Amino acid sequence: MADKPTPGGNTGAESPSPHERPEIWGPRLLRIVEQQVEQFRELDQLSRDQAALIKEGRSDELLALLGSRQVIVDRITSSNGELEPFLASWDTLSEQLPAALRESVRARMRELEELVASIAARDQADQKALEERRGGVQNELASLSRNRSAVNAYASTGVSRQQPHYQDRQG
Q1: What percentage of the chain reaches a pLDDT higher than 90?
Q2: Do 6 and 35 form a contact (C-beta atoms < 8 A)?
Q3: Whether the Cβ atoms of residue 116 and residue 39 lie closer than 8 Å to each other
Q4: Cα separations (Å) of 1 from 4, 8, 9, 11, 36?
Q5: 4 neighbors 11 (Cβ within 8 angstroms)
Q6: 22-70 pLDDT, tens per residue?
């Protein structure tokens, strides 16, 4: 007994291509992109908080925040896997979507691009601030080392470390 062809031209024994039915994959694509927008908004807020922590020199809080950022980045990476098949054929697929849905997806993708650019710019500025701070700390450590060397050199001259004692003019 032969399987009946489905509207996409496949037999019932084969599963239809995920890109044959835009009324199914279109809303799914929009949900994935909206999820990513929300995740990038979270990342954007953490990026803003990160800049403040760097400016204030709050290292412990910064490390905790970086851990939170990594969790979000991992979620974004996971959803990128779901998005990839759509992006690989976007020019062709976008024309299959109803106009309103296509514009919604494009608007969200533009928002994603803006968020990514904003986060990347802020992260670059934060990296520069951290490098400057590290340079300042290195200079302070070098200064401490020089001061310690001077104290050690003074101590090695044989000058007694006893408390000073005072004499009157007579002796």
Answers
A1: 49
A2: no
A3: no
A4: 9, 20, 18, 12, 46
A5: yes
A6: 888 999 999 999 999 999 999 999 999 999 999 888 889 999 999 999 9
Q: Which of 4, 33, 5, 13 is nearest to 93 (CA)?
A: 33
- Both tokens of residue 15? 């599963």
3 state DSSP class of 79? helix
- Region 9-31 average pLDDT: 68
Cβ neighbours, 10 Å, residue 122: 15
The vertex-167 CA angle with 164 and 169, nearest 5°, equals 145
- Which tokens in the block code for residue 61? 């809080």
Buried-state track 66-78, b at ≥16 Cβ within 10 A, e below 16: eeebeebeebbee
Residues of the chain with pLDDT > 70, as a percent, come to 67
CATH topology of domain 22-153: Methane Monooxygenase Hydroxylase; Chain G, domain 1 (1.20.58)
